[in-house]
Amino acid sequence: MKFKALIVEDETLSRDFLSNMVREYCPQLELVAVASNVEEALQRISAHSPQLIFLDIEMQTGTGFDVLQQAGHHDFHVIFTTAFDHYAIQAIKFSAVDYLLKPINLDELETAVNKAVKQMEGPMPDNRLDLLLKNLNKPAGEDFCISLSTSEGVDFIPLSGIIRLEAKGPYTIFYLKDGRQIMVSKNLKEYEMSLQEHGFFRIHNSNMINLKDVKRWVRTDGGYAVMSDGAMVAISPKKKDEFMALMTKRTV
């Protein structure tokens, strides 16, 4: 079975280049149409009902997000394409939507397509795009949400609802303020870069904590942080000075 794909790209050379790559290296896809602007994209979506859209973020007549806002439905998967580290990349990452930086690398394209095909073959409904639009349109000062995919479905969790993360081999356990524990099949490193910009700290090789949820930190017994859920999380000797500096800033 082949999945129908649409390419939305306003630069002719980039559009032709990606089209050729998809036709030659992505046998799981059938390229049913291309579009060069927001209006054409909406027309092609209506006419062809693609299951996967390669969506340029910045176009002369608007953005890829305009396409999503105006599409009216999101029963398709998206792989964004962009020529630079766009301001919205962080929201895209939190929503677990893939993106490719131009010029597009073949290995990265194949990886993104394989991931999308796996998602499209799955039985679970996918509302990552709704989460993305929510993150993009969030009021100033409001939390991002992060999507956590499990075998049972996808949970969308505000960052303020996360107390700590714990590594379990290739898995990560999220401990939430509502008492739930969610295990996802990604390692802790994959969350470190995005979360550390939002008040989270990798306090130990196996643990990352929300600094706002540290209720007490203890210097004895090697040093540990007491979290709002009562957990006592060891502080790595290599991280102790940095942790103390961050906590001192929090109390100033």
From TrEMBL:
<keyword id="KW-0597">Phosphoprotein</keyword>
<dbReference type="InterPro" id="IPR007492">
    <property type="entry name" value="LytTR_DNA-bd_dom"/>
</dbReference>
<feature type="domain" description="Response regulatory">
    <location>
        <begin position="4"/>
        <end position="117"/>
    </location>
</feature>
<feature type="domain" description="HTH LytTR-type">
    <location>
        <begin position="146"/>
        <end position="249"/>
    </location>
</feature>
<keyword id="KW-0238">DNA-binding</keyword>
<feature type="modified residue" description="4-aspartylphosphate">
    <location>
        <position position="56"/>
    </location>
</feature>
<dbReference type="GO" id="GO:0000156">
    <property type="term" value="F:phosphorelay response regulator activity"/>
</dbReference>
<dbReference type="InterPro" id="IPR001789">
    <property type="entry name" value="Sig_transdc_resp-reg_receiver"/>
</dbReference>
<protein>
    <submittedName>
        <fullName>DNA-binding response regulator</fullName>
    </submittedName>
</protein>
<dbReference type="Pfam" id="PF04397">
    <property type="entry name" value="LytTR"/>
</dbReference>
<dbReference type="Pfam" id="PF00072">
    <property type="entry name" value="Response_reg"/>
</dbReference>
<dbReference type="InterPro" id="IPR051271">
    <property type="entry name" value="2C-system_Tx_regulators"/>
</dbReference>
<dbReference type="InterPro" id="IPR011006">
    <property type="entry name" value="CheY-like_superfamily"/>
</dbReference>
<dbReference type="GO" id="GO:0003677">
    <property type="term" value="F:DNA binding"/>
</dbReference>
